[in-house]
């Protein structure tokens, strides 16, 4: 008994396609924010506290009967308002969303170098404290983003953060 020859299989002899390569972890890298954009955002954040300081000085400073300068409750209320608003903006908002009002206006974010996510209020506070290091040697740390590959200040390097667009 003889069998008929096998039918021609159109897929015979073809090699299966190669599997896709493994995707990289995390989000795609974002562009680093320029020094000018960072400076502009810092200025906007600073301007937010100006009305509170003006209230403190205008309403809080006075003179006594002898013409000597005095300070009243409005001074302390104005300064407290400036600290609360600035703290909310620079520590809470920056920690939770990565953006202060100034950064949001200029389209940049503060993120962790390791995760690409906002850093939390505590780390945002520590980063602001670390800016003392930026100011130690003639403020060179503030200028460091002009030539650093990741555009980081010394404080960014200490806390391991990036400012991205």
Automatic annotation (TrEMBL):
The chain crosses the membrane at residues 42-61, 73-93. It comes from the Bacteria. Keywords: Cell membrane, Membrane, Transmembrane, Transmembrane helix. The keyword Transmembrane helix applies. The keyword Membrane applies. Pfam families: RDD. The lineage of its organism: Bacteria, Bacillati, Actinomycetota, Actinomycetes, Micromonosporales. Residues 1-22 are annotated as: Disordered. It comes from Actinoplanes italicus. Signal peptide: none annotated. Residues 32-159 form the RDD domain. Its main location: membrane. This is Putative RDD family membrane protein YckC. It is a multi-pass membrane protein. Residues 10-22 have a biased composition (Low complexity).
């Amino acid at each position: 008994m003889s069998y008929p020859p096998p039918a021609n299989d159109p897929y015979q002899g073809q090699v299966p396609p190669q599997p896709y390569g493994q995707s990289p972890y995390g989000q795609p890298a974002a562009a680093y924010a320029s020094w000018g954009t960072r400076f502009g955002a810092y200025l906007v954040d600073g301007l937010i506290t100006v009305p509170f300081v003006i209230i403190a000085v205008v309403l809080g400073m006075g003179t006594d009967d002898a013409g000597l300068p005095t300070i009243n409750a409005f001074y302390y209320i104005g300064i407290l308002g400036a600290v609360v608003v600035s703290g909310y903006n620079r520590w809470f908002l920056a920690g939770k969303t990565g953006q202060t009002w100034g950064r949001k206006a200029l389209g940049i974010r503060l993120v962790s170098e390791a995760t690409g996510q906002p850093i939390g209020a505590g780390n945002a506070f520590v980063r602001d404290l670390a800016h003392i290091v930026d100011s130690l040697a003639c403020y060179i740390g503030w200028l460091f983003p002009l030539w650093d590959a990741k555009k980081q200040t010394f404080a960014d390097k200490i806390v391991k953060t990036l400012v991205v667009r």
